[in-house]
């Protein structure tokens, strides 16, 4: 066997190991990527047909079992850490290694992360998240509380969480450029924790996104032994004979 062919075979085996269906030949059988169980309204590219979930919620399973939103505006930008089907939410972390402003020591996003979801059918949870603001391209005092720790190669990057009225700390100049990243409130271990020291962990632990509730119609479908699908911009409940179940809603959606 040639080296090239062997490489192709090994790559295929690794992909199958990272992303596998959990049962049977049902086209929309639950799939896994790492520790994620993937089912409607999500689908796993290369394992499940795209109609197994909302097109915007198609996931790609990368090496090492990491799941990414396939339809982000940059490759492997948003990693999906967890999915909570019971309350229509999931946790996403921005991959700063693929998109950052800063230097080799300090990787911080180079865009307002929330705006990257403006065309997706999700909301950044206001209850679960707060904004971590990064400032740069300005002169920060050497002893400023917002300076990233450990120091960056260019000691001009800071991070803070706005106060209850959205204000920056007094030692942040008004002429700074800035980007914001949602982070989970639960990631803060105590009220005195300094974001400038914990920014890497806060970013890595991600933030919560919510989608429009769909659980009721899908649960009812599964209760009848059907399979949830999203076909031609509408929810469909497909019975075991491959046809739409009786009273399948077929309700159009903007998703």
UniProtKB/TrEMBL annotation:
Q: What does UniProt give as the signal peptide span?
A: 1-19
The record's keywords, sorted A to Z, are: Glycoprotein, Signal
Entry GO terms, CC: membrane
GO terms (molecular function) for this protein are: polysaccharide binding
According to the entry, every stretch annotated as the Wall-associated receptor kinase C-terminal domain falls at: 171-242
Q: How does it sit in the membrane?
A: Single-pass membrane protein
Taxonomic lineage per UniProt?
Eukaryota, Viridiplantae, Streptophyta, Embryophyta, Tracheophyta
Q: Where is the Wall-associated receptor kinase galacturonan-binding domain?
A: 28-92
Q: Which residue ranges traverse the bilayer?
A: none
Where in or outside the cell it occurs: the entry states: Membrane
Q: Which domain of life is it from?
A: Eukaryota
This chain's protein is named: Wall-associated receptor kinase galacturonan-binding domain-containing protein
